[in-house]
Amino acid sequence: MVRRFAEGGFVGEGRMVLVGVVMGSRSDWPTMKAASDILTALEIPHEARVLSAHRTPDAMFAYAEAAAGRGLRAIIAGAGGAAHLPGMLAAKTRVPVLGVPVQSRALSGLDSLLSIVQMPKGVPVGTLAIGEAGAANAGLLAAAMLATTDAALAARLDAWRAALTAAVPELPFDPAE
Ligand code: RP5
Questions:
Q1: Which residue ranges have their beta carbon within 6 Å of ligand 1?
Q2: Whole domain around residue 89: which residue ranges?
Q3: Cα angle: 14, vertex 35, 128; to 5 degrees
Q4: Interval 141-175: pLDDT, tens
Q5: Are 31 and 135 in contact (CB under 8 A)?
Q6: Residue identifier of the C-alpha nearest atom 7 of ligand 1
Protein backbone atom coordinates (compact mmCIF):
# COMPACT_ATOMS: atom_id res chain seq x y z
CA MET A 1 0.00 0.00 0.00
CA VAL A 2 1.44 3.37 -0.98
CA ARG A 3 0.10 6.61 0.42
CA ARG A 4 0.65 10.24 -0.44
CA PHE A 5 1.98 12.66 2.14
CA ALA A 6 0.86 16.27 2.17
CA GLU A 7 4.32 17.55 1.31
CA GLY A 8 4.51 15.40 -1.79
CA GLY A 9 6.51 12.48 -0.41
CA PHE A 10 5.40 8.90 -0.82
CA VAL A 11 6.30 5.93 1.32
CA GLY A 12 5.01 2.40 1.66
CA GLU A 13 3.06 1.95 4.90
CA GLY A 14 5.44 0.97 7.66
CA ARG A 15 8.30 0.35 5.26
CA MET A 16 11.73 1.93 5.19
CA VAL A 17 12.21 4.65 2.58
CA LEU A 18 14.52 3.28 -0.12
CA VAL A 19 14.78 6.16 -2.60
CA GLY A 20 15.03 9.89 -2.04
CA VAL A 21 13.68 12.15 -4.79
CA VAL A 22 15.18 15.56 -4.14
CA MET A 23 15.17 18.79 -6.12
CA GLY A 24 16.48 22.31 -5.91
CA SER A 25 13.13 24.05 -5.92
CA ARG A 26 9.40 23.47 -5.85
CA SER A 27 9.48 24.63 -9.47
CA ASP A 28 11.26 21.32 -10.28
CA TRP A 29 8.38 19.19 -8.99
CA PRO A 30 6.38 19.05 -12.27
CA THR A 31 9.48 17.40 -13.78
CA MET A 32 10.54 15.30 -10.80
CA LYS A 33 7.00 14.02 -10.22
CA ALA A 34 7.68 11.70 -13.17
CA ALA A 35 10.32 9.89 -11.07
CA SER A 36 7.99 9.70 -8.10
CA ASP A 37 5.14 8.38 -10.27
CA ILE A 38 7.31 5.52 -11.54
CA LEU A 39 8.45 4.63 -8.02
CA THR A 40 4.83 4.70 -6.86
CA ALA A 41 3.73 2.49 -9.76
CA LEU A 42 6.43 -0.02 -8.84
CA GLU A 43 5.55 0.19 -5.12
CA ILE A 44 8.98 1.44 -4.09
CA PRO A 45 8.92 3.35 -0.78
CA HIS A 46 10.30 6.80 -1.42
CA GLU A 47 10.18 10.40 -0.30
CA ALA A 48 10.27 13.76 -2.07
CA ARG A 49 12.11 16.79 -0.66
CA VAL A 50 13.29 20.25 -1.73
CA LEU A 51 17.03 20.63 -1.06
CA SER A 52 19.09 23.34 -2.69
CA ALA A 53 22.86 23.31 -3.09
CA HIS A 54 22.77 27.10 -3.16
CA ARG A 55 19.88 28.11 -0.94
CA THR A 56 19.89 25.38 1.73
CA PRO A 57 23.42 23.95 1.62
CA ASP A 58 23.42 22.84 5.28
CA ALA A 59 20.17 20.89 4.86
CA MET A 60 21.56 19.32 1.68
CA PHE A 61 24.71 18.16 3.48
CA ALA A 62 22.70 16.83 6.42
CA TYR A 63 20.47 14.85 4.05
CA ALA A 64 23.48 13.38 2.23
CA GLU A 65 25.32 12.55 5.43
CA ALA A 66 22.30 10.71 6.84
CA ALA A 67 21.34 8.92 3.62
CA ALA A 68 23.31 5.67 3.99
CA GLY A 69 22.46 5.29 7.68
CA ARG A 70 18.75 5.76 6.91
CA GLY A 71 18.92 2.90 4.44
CA LEU A 72 18.46 4.91 1.26
CA ARG A 73 19.59 2.82 -1.71
CA ALA A 74 19.49 5.60 -4.31
CA ILE A 75 19.01 9.34 -4.48
CA ILE A 76 17.36 10.89 -7.53
CA ALA A 77 18.39 14.53 -7.63
CA GLY A 78 16.96 17.07 -10.05
CA ALA A 79 18.09 20.65 -10.52
CA GLY A 80 18.17 23.34 -13.16
CA GLY A 81 20.62 26.01 -14.23
CA ALA A 82 23.91 25.83 -12.32
CA ALA A 83 22.79 22.42 -11.15
CA HIS A 84 25.21 21.49 -8.38
CA LEU A 85 22.78 19.49 -6.28
CA PRO A 86 23.48 15.97 -7.63
CA GLY A 87 27.25 16.42 -7.57
CA MET A 88 27.31 17.93 -4.09
CA LEU A 89 25.14 15.12 -2.75
CA ALA A 90 27.43 12.56 -4.40
CA ALA A 91 30.40 14.26 -2.76
CA LYS A 92 28.88 13.62 0.67
CA THR A 93 27.44 10.10 0.34
CA ARG A 94 28.28 6.76 -1.22
CA VAL A 95 24.58 6.16 -1.92
CA PRO A 96 24.27 6.17 -5.73
CA VAL A 97 23.07 9.53 -7.06
CA LEU A 98 21.06 9.75 -10.27
CA GLY A 99 21.04 13.28 -11.66
CA VAL A 100 18.14 14.76 -13.60
CA PRO A 101 18.81 17.99 -15.53
CA VAL A 102 15.68 20.12 -15.22
CA GLN A 103 14.79 22.19 -18.26
CA SER A 104 15.78 25.77 -17.49
CA ARG A 105 14.12 28.89 -18.85
CA ALA A 106 17.29 30.57 -20.13
CA LEU A 107 19.11 27.69 -21.81
CA SER A 108 16.46 24.94 -22.09
CA GLY A 109 18.32 22.62 -19.74
CA LEU A 110 21.62 22.44 -21.58
CA ASP A 111 23.16 24.33 -18.66
CA SER A 112 21.63 21.83 -16.22
CA LEU A 113 22.85 18.87 -18.27
CA LEU A 114 26.43 20.08 -18.53
CA SER A 115 26.51 21.04 -14.85
CA ILE A 116 25.42 17.55 -13.81
CA VAL A 117 27.15 15.32 -16.34
CA GLN A 118 30.69 16.69 -16.20
CA MET A 119 31.70 15.29 -12.82
CA PRO A 120 35.43 15.01 -12.29
CA LYS A 121 36.85 11.48 -11.96
CA GLY A 122 36.22 9.93 -8.55
CA VAL A 123 32.76 11.24 -7.65
CA PRO A 124 30.22 9.77 -10.07
CA VAL A 125 26.69 10.97 -10.79
CA GLY A 126 24.60 8.87 -13.15
CA THR A 127 23.15 11.52 -15.44
CA LEU A 128 19.82 11.10 -17.18
CA ALA A 129 18.18 13.01 -20.03
CA ILE A 130 16.88 16.57 -19.69
CA GLY A 131 13.37 16.91 -18.30
CA GLU A 132 10.50 14.56 -17.62
CA ALA A 133 11.86 11.64 -19.66
CA GLY A 134 15.06 11.79 -17.63
CA ALA A 135 13.12 11.90 -14.37
CA ALA A 136 11.00 8.89 -15.34
CA ASN A 137 14.09 7.01 -16.45
CA ALA A 138 15.80 7.85 -13.16
CA GLY A 139 12.89 6.17 -11.40
CA LEU A 140 13.21 3.15 -13.67
CA LEU A 141 16.98 3.00 -13.16
CA ALA A 142 16.60 3.15 -9.39
CA ALA A 143 14.03 0.37 -9.68
CA ALA A 144 16.40 -1.73 -11.77
CA MET A 145 19.17 -1.25 -9.19
CA LEU A 146 16.87 -2.31 -6.35
CA ALA A 147 15.52 -5.21 -8.39
CA THR A 148 18.95 -6.87 -8.37
CA THR A 149 18.28 -7.87 -4.76
CA ASP A 150 14.46 -7.94 -4.69
CA ALA A 151 12.76 -10.69 -6.73
CA ALA A 152 9.24 -9.31 -6.21
CA LEU A 153 10.29 -5.90 -7.47
CA ALA A 154 12.09 -7.55 -10.39
CA ALA A 155 8.80 -9.21 -11.35
CA ARG A 156 6.94 -5.88 -11.13
CA LEU A 157 9.58 -4.17 -13.25
CA ASP A 158 9.45 -6.96 -15.84
CA ALA A 159 5.66 -6.59 -15.99
CA TRP A 160 5.98 -2.80 -16.39
CA ARG A 161 8.41 -3.29 -19.27
CA ALA A 162 6.18 -5.94 -20.87
CA ALA A 163 3.24 -3.50 -20.73
CA LEU A 164 5.41 -0.84 -22.39
CA THR A 165 6.23 -3.27 -25.19
CA ALA A 166 2.60 -4.36 -25.57
CA ALA A 167 1.49 -0.73 -25.89
CA VAL A 168 3.56 -0.19 -29.04
CA PRO A 169 1.26 -0.44 -32.11
CA GLU A 170 2.48 -2.48 -35.07
CA LEU A 171 1.15 -0.03 -37.64
CA PRO A 172 2.03 3.67 -37.85
CA PHE A 173 -1.63 4.54 -38.57
CA ASP A 174 -5.10 3.39 -37.41
CA PRO A 175 -6.46 1.06 -40.15
CA ALA A 176 -10.05 1.79 -38.97
CA GLU A 177 -9.74 5.47 -39.94
C1 RP5 B 1 17.59 25.55 -9.22
O2 RP5 B 1 17.21 26.75 -9.77
C3 RP5 B 1 16.36 24.73 -9.12
O4 RP5 B 1 16.70 23.39 -9.25
C5 RP5 B 1 15.49 25.22 -10.25
O6 RP5 B 1 15.52 24.35 -11.35
C7 RP5 B 1 16.12 26.55 -10.62
C8 RP5 B 1 15.14 27.70 -10.49
O9 RP5 B 1 14.61 27.71 -9.20
P10 RP5 B 1 13.42 28.71 -8.82
O11 RP5 B 1 13.94 30.09 -9.07
O12 RP5 B 1 12.26 28.35 -9.72
O13 RP5 B 1 13.11 28.43 -7.37
O14 RP5 B 1 18.16 25.72 -7.95
A1: 23-25, 27-28, 52, 54, 79-81, 102
A2: 19-158
A3: 135
A4: 999 999 999 999 999 999 999 999 999 999 999 99
A5: yes
A6: 80
